[in-house]
From TrEMBL:
<protein>
    <submittedName>
        <fullName>Branched-chain amino acid aminotransferase/4-amino-4-deoxychorismate lyase</fullName>
    </submittedName>
</protein>
<dbReference type="GO" id="GO:0008483">
    <property type="term" value="F:transaminase activity"/>
</dbReference>
<dbReference type="InterPro" id="IPR036038">
    <property type="entry name" value="Aminotransferase-like"/>
</dbReference>
<keyword id="KW-0032">Aminotransferase</keyword>
<dbReference type="InterPro" id="IPR043131">
    <property type="entry name" value="BCAT-like_N"/>
</dbReference>
<dbReference type="InterPro" id="IPR043132">
    <property type="entry name" value="BCAT-like_C"/>
</dbReference>
<dbReference type="InterPro" id="IPR001544">
    <property type="entry name" value="Aminotrans_IV"/>
</dbReference>
<keyword id="KW-0456">Lyase</keyword>
<dbReference type="GO" id="GO:0016829">
    <property type="term" value="F:lyase activity"/>
</dbReference>
<dbReference type="Pfam" id="PF01063">
    <property type="entry name" value="Aminotran_4"/>
</dbReference>
<keyword id="KW-0808">Transferase</keyword>
Length: 197
């Protein structure tokens, strides 16, 4: 059975960025199961009113929501990254099956995580979208593996702009920020001299 997941941040008693999560979940449902009933994430998450940051994990498939779990969230420390190439990887839908990402993450070779390079261009880490700065503006890869909800929010606000970022151009940037639904923009930043090939 094909299953997908939405990871929603619960903080201050409310689910964050809910409209974007709901849109992505229902887009995925209609893409894989045309005519399926829409899911109302607001109703699914209604009882989760945690004040401190929690990670709600909504697993869903053809029959709708299959599982809901919620746990306190503690970000892992990422101080070093390694570029890892894979021209065939596809993770355009947030599936529970993370085997391709896990296989690449195992190639970190001492780094805390990886940046996946596809067709010569930077994409994402094994669990976040990224943005790089030249010291003036922040650029996010135009072709990420997954179009994250936080990424969409940052693009809409103008805090980041899309750009193809060749792996060979890493030296032109000063730092890389990792972000996702659980991590704020600026919460996790790695200097470019800590990104290894």
């Amino acid at each position: 059975m094909c299953l997908f997941v939405e990871t929603v941040r619960i903080e201050g008693g409310v689910p964050c960025n809910l409209a974007r999560h709901n849109a992505r979940l229902n887009f995925t449902l209609t893409r894989f199961w045309p005519g399926s009933s829409p899911v109302d994430l607001e109703a699914v998450l209604a009882g989760l009113t945690y004040r401190k940051r929690h990670k709600a994990r909504v697993v869903y498939g053809e029959r709708g929501v299959e599982e809901l779990t919620c746990t306190p969230y503690h970000p892992r420390a990422i101080r070093t990254l390694r570029l890892v190439e894979d021209d065939a990887i596809d993770y355009s839908f947030k599936s529970v099956g993370r085997e391709p990402l896990n296989r690449l993450a195992a190639l970190a070779d001492g780094a805390d995580d990886i940046i996946i390079v596809k067709n010569g261009l930077l994409t994402d880490t094994s669990f976040t979208n990224i943005a790089l700065t030249d010291g003036h503006r922040w650029f996010t890869p135009a072709m990420p593996l997954l179009r994250g909800t936080k990424r969409a929010e940052l693009l809409d606000s103008g805090l980041v702009v899309e750009r193809d970022i060749p792996a060979t151009d890493c030296c032109r940037y000063k730092a890389v920020r990792l972000f996702n639904a659980m991590l704020d923009f600026g919460e996790m930043e790695v200097p470019m001299n800590m990104v290894m090939r």
